[in-house]
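Field log, afternoon session.

UNIT: design team B
ACTIVITY: writing a sequence onto a fixed backbone
BACKBONE:
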């Protein structure tokens, strides 16, 4: 079905060097995996395995303490090597050494067209996949006691160097369709796609085509334009379309298969390309020899705007569709740095001469270039926030802790990632995503 076209004028596409070529590199895993509870926002983990336990792919490694029926499945079969804890015994990750021969829990193939919403939810809970679904308000992993008015899936990835989901889904359309059909049994389902998407003909979901710059692919932006969240309402969101494949595979094969196609990208990578990896797979084999190890680099689990810094000994995040490597920038010794007529640097407001060069791809590094300063109300955020929200006023209300004002300004509709571009262009250098996350966490406690 076509016809639902939404054109967005606000936003910003940042063209970076190191985009993944549409070829796949073959990777031999070293058998080390780890699932990180922090990848599931708002979940307090309760570990249900001990070191030395044998698990199959699909067995739970931890559950959500608040809603123990929400389990999180092991991506592989093998032996639990270690439960890694940080300060105040916080669970950082659960490491599993994979068996040479993989075994899967058999959850049984199911014909989704004959299931109802309750049965779909129970199947996802049982297989440890339910926690991959998020919700608005609060932008957290959802729980089965919420009743969504709708479910939103975005299959448009448009952040800098983002892995193209159209490339990933090729040959897996059947699983994607099954996943959408399963979701549609729970609530009305909307699918947001890009202008040239091959997924426009998907059934059991109302398809919307988003035509505009980043962050048109953010699921929160799509919700805002299709059916905004009012106080007291909940919508479920899947901004990571690989999750729909996980769900479809569960029903089509009866197994938990957390395989995703990841872009190895960034200006420091010698041959940027795609690779198939399991959630939680160690990054060391992927990153060995892929960049110049003598240089100081920033390795990011995810994309440059919203990803988390990691190391080559880190593990693929549950929702990471990119591993991005860019220069750290700590060796950039610039005399008169601020006064240079930079041609290699990206600027939003023409303060560098680079705007004369048009659409060129930049090799940006991880420096912030300037310290945090008082918030300047300049209207900068509004240019890159294609939502019906006064971004600067909302941030100000969060900083001052004015909850009534936050509610009036639409905090229930936003996720931290919606402010990633605003953070990039912000001349006050505020950590907007962190501010929004803390604001949402406080509200969640207040309203609990």
């Amino acid at each position: 079905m076509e016809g639902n076209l939404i054109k967005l004028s606000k936003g910003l596409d940042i063209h970076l060097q190191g985009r993944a070529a549409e070829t796949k590199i073959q990777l031999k895993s070293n058998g080390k995996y780890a699932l990180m509870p922090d990848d599931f926002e708002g979940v307090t983990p309760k570990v249900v395995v001990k070191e030395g336990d044998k698990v199959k792919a699909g067995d739970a490694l931890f559950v959500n303490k608040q809603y123990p029926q929400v389990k999180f499945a092991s991506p592989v079969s093998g032996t639990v090597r270690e439960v890694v804890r940080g300060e105040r015994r916080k669970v950082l990750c659960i490491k599993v050494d994979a068996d040479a021969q993989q075994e899967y829990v058999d959850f049984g193939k199911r014909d989704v067209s004959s299931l109802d919403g309750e049965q779909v939810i129970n199947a996802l809970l049982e297989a440890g996949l339910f926690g991959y679904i998020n919700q608005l308000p609060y932008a957290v992993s959802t729980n089965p006691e919420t009743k969504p008015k709708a479910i939103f899936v975005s299959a448009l990835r448009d952040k800098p160097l983002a892995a193209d989901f159209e490339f990933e889904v090729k040959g897996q359309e059947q699983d994607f369709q099954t996943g959408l059909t399963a979701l549609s049994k729970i609530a009305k389902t909307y699918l947001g796609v890009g202008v040239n998407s091959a997924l426009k003909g998907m059934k059991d979901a109302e398809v919307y085509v988003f035509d505009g710059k980043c962050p048109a692919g953010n699921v929160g932006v799509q919700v805002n334009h299709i059916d905004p969240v009012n106080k007291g309402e909940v919508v479920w969101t899947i901004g990571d379309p690989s999750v729909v494949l996980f769900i479809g595979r569960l029903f089509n094969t009866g197994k938990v298969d957390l395989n995703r196609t990841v872009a190895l990208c960034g200006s420091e990578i010698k041959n940027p390309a795609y690779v198939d990896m399991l959630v939680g797979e160690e990054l060391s084999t992927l990153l060995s020899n892929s960049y110049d190890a003598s240089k100081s680099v920033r390795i990011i689990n995810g994309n440059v705007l919203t990803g988390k810094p990691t190391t080559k000994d880190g593990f693929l995040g549950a929702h990471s569709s990119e591993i991005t490597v860019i220069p750290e920038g700590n060796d950039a010794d610039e005399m008169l740095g601020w006064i240079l007529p930079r041609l290699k640097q990206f600027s939003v407001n023409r303060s560098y001469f680079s705007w004369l060069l048009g659409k060129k791809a930049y090799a940006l590094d991880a420096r912030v270039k300037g310290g945090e300063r008082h918030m300047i109300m300049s209207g900068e955020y509004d240019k890159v926030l294609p939502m019906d929200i006064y971004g600067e006023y909302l941030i100000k209300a969060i900083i001052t802790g004015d909850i009534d004002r936050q509610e009036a300004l639409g905090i229930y509709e936003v996720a931290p990632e919606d402010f990633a571009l605003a953070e990039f262009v912000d001349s006050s250098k505020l950590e907007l995503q962190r501010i929004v996350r803390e604001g949402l966490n406080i509200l969640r406690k207040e309203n609990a």
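LOG NOTE: The first strand starts at residue 5 and ends at 7.
NEXT ACTIVITY: expression trials, pending approval
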